[in-house]
Amino acid sequence: MILNPYTALDWNAVIPLFLVAATALLVLLADVIAPGGSKRYTSVAIALAGLIGSGYLCAKLYRLTYSAFGGGFMVGGFAIVFEELIILTAIFSVALYAAVGEEDRIASSLALMLWGTSGAMLMAGAGNLMTIFLGLELLSLALYCLCGSSKRPAARESALKYLILSSTASGFMLYGMALFFGATGSVALAALASPVIANSSLFLIGAGLFLIGIAFKLSLVPFHAWVPDVFQGAPLPVTAFMSVATKAAALAVLMRFAFASLTGPHAHAILLPILVVGAISMLFGNFAALAQTDMKRLLAYSGIAQMGYIVTALAGTTALGLRYAVFYLAAYLFMNIGAFAVVALISTENEEGSNIAAFHGLAHRRPLLAAAMTFFLLALAGFPPTAGFIGKILILSSAVGAGYAWLAGVLIAGTAISLYVYFKIIRLMYERQTDSRTAPVSGNTPLAWISVGVCAIATIVLTFYPIAPSNILPLVK
Questions:
Q1: Please, which residues have CB within 8 angstroms of residue 380's CB and are 6 or more apart in sequence?
Q2: pLDDT tens track for 232-259
Q3: Residue of 61, 48, 124 whose CA lies nearest to 91
Q4: How many CA atoms does the CB half-sphere of 18 hold within 13 Å?
Q5: Quick one: pLDDT at residue 435?
Q6: What is the pTM of this model?
Q7: How far is C-alpha 308 from the geometric centre of its chain's CA atoms?
Q8: Residue 75: strand pairing partners
Q9: How many other CB atoms are there within 10 angstroms of residue 66's CB atom?
């Protein structure tokens, strides 16, 4: 009798995410035994070590392509690239806890963030519906707690809103998965690729419900209402993590579904609603950002528009579009996290630095921070020559080449609107203050400074060396 039907290859596939989850336990243990004055940096150091180790183990698997746990988890370039992006996001977000966050809640917050990271990594490699939902719930449950981990009243409101709305979206997604199972008799994504079920009403309705859940996680209009309030109320490192990691995990699921599970002439019709809401998101996100007075809310609306740009690259489900979408996601990671790191550096525990008024005259007080923020905002706006500009040009070429010129037109219009949004902040930073107020500045925050520097360098490298791995076609079997 075989007690363990799985081989070393199966377990090797999930060792990176197991390491991240185990690191969370070490963080909690260290919090109990570490001296009082060093708890923050001990917890951050352990979390960073675990994430870096996990990233190294992921990199070793990049050249391998196989199905683990009977198709439940896929190993390959696609999964590894997304896992690495999620790990990078977690590394930068953990580093921000060295600058902001309440001392007595650092360890618990880091543990939850690490468990959420492992859930996002599980979604990146998910090969069946059960694994997708397991990863989604592991990520979501951690985020519910993280959003309310601050003592500020706004954090409680943030957590409650995210709990209610995210649970509703998960319900839609789960019901869609149930209809997929009814149509195919299997939980495997590979079963959805059968042309026999293409006209099945169960499959079509299930696809609609499933994509509603994905659109919520991507914060696409009209499933975006939670984003600005949750981003503003949640602690800043949590907001930075959610802005990329959650969306990267959802994008991995959407891309695997779109590129590997949809076949036949109905594929484009099924994805058309996502493309339409992506187009609306590009316009709405940038329009709504115009009126914001809080940097976290502004970046939340910016993120809505940015996800619209990435979804545009998926039009036509071409391999080139997939590569360009991954490239832009990587560029967005560094541009966005860099901006959040600057906000952390001018914030105190109460995060006053997230108010746009704190940026007034920043160039005359903190010229390096103002220069870095200017660079990140120009990149987010797609101003040449930046990685954001290169990414948008690549997405435009992909959309036009796939026959979706109307999406390219909407992208250009959304970019034009966003220029005013970001230049408003830049102008404010380079104005001279007429009063004596100064932005609060964090104390000893070398990790936040390192985050700003690394994100700036990475954005510059992607500007002049726009590369996306070629081995990233998603597999389901």
A1: 302, 306, 332, 335, 336, 339, 388, 418, 422
A2: 888 888 899 998 999 999 999 998 888 8
A3: 48
A4: 7
A5: 57
A6: 0.92
A7: 13
A8: 66
A9: 14
